[in-house]
Specification:
seven-stranded mixed beta sheet, 295 residues, 31% strand, Beta-Lactamase, alpha/beta, Rossmann fold
Length: 295
């Protein structure tokens, strides 16, 4: 991932990146170069050492510009559509979040200019992490699937668990359609999944949930639809459409408890779609399974 940084920054972070638990590299214009690991954020000096904020290297406009040129292969406009989603996907499934000035036309976001920050987020694939919940979702020799909702606060591993659960289900002969709205589940790069979601998964990358579900039901004949971050009232239509079609769904949403999720607007009419709920936390590190509940 560091190969996509400007050469000057690449040298600075080389030694720090050798430490385990890397989660993010943050570049902010005229502010400290920072790295996030399992112990939190640290600033990096020009010599490539952890330091106090007042001694850290300040990211320059040239650093940002050179980094963007490397990521986009000197073709900003070829990546413009993906940029409108707020991020770019790198080989390996890593993502670069983007901050800058929005350009609107007739109320529609058309472009982003004056880039002021880049956040490199390390993709984490943990093969086998869903093993402890698989038999709660895929039942018996007939492989009956239960529609499942994975619930956790941000940063607790719900997408990582969703991805591995998708992989294990698809590799057991189940036809899966992945509606990868934010390119975070399979993390496709130039059409190729960078993260393993199983050999019987069809990926609808960048599709909205509504359009993706419509296309999947019309042309891909899924037994299960997988999607991330249910959270809007319009998602209730998606869940209802899947339920009417007899297709199971495995999804995630933000929350810290089942009661908190049930209080959300979309859940008032659609929580009944789900048969199982998995609650995650960071109590013993990301991905701690607090409970698996049958509804």
């Amino acid at each position: 991932m560091q190969n996509f940084l400007a050469p000057k920054l690449r040298k600075m972070v080389a030694e720090v990146l050798l430490k385990p638990g890397l989660e993010e590299i943050r570049l902010r214009l005229e502010r400290p170069l920072m790295i996030k690991g399992d112990q939190g954020y640290i600033c990096v000096s020009e010599e490539g050492q952890p330091c106090r904020p007042d001694r850290s290297y300040l990211v320059s406009a040239d650093d940002l510009q050179r980094t963007i040129q490397i990521i986009t292969k000197n073709s900003w406009y070829a990546w413009e559509q993906e940029l409108l989603g707020g991020y770019l996907t790198l080989p390996g499934g890593h993502r670069v979040g983007i901050g800058g000035k929005a350009v609107f036309a007739n109320g529609v976001l058309k472009s982003v200019k004056d880039i002021s920050s880049l956040n490199f987020r390390v993709a984490k694939e943990i093969i086998g992490c869903a093993g402890s919940v698989l038999n709660k979702v895929l039942l018996g020799p007939e492989q009956k699937i239960l529609s499942t909702l994975i619930v956790s606060p941000p940063g607790c591993g719900k997408t990582t668990l969703l991805r591995d659960l998708t992989r294990q289900i698809a590799n057991r002969g189940v036809q899966v359609a992945v509606i990868d709205e934010r390119s975070e589940i399979a993390a496709c790069y130039e059409g190729v999944p960078q993260l393993d979601v199983g050999f019987q998964s069809d990926i609808l990358d960048g599709y909205s949930k509504e359009v993706g579900v419509n296309h999947a039901l019309r042309g891909l004949s899924p037994q299960v639809v997988v999607t991330d971050e249910i959270g809007h009232q319009r998602d209730a239509w998606v869940l209802a459409e899947l339920s009417r079609s007899g297709v199971k769904v495995i999804a995630t949403c933000h929350g810290s408890s089942l009661s908190q999720v049930k209080a959300k607007n979309w859940a008032q009419s659609s929580m009944g779609v789900f048969e199982t709920v998995v609650i995650l936390s960071r109590r013993n590190g990301p991905g701690t399974i607090e409970s698996v509940l049958r509804l």
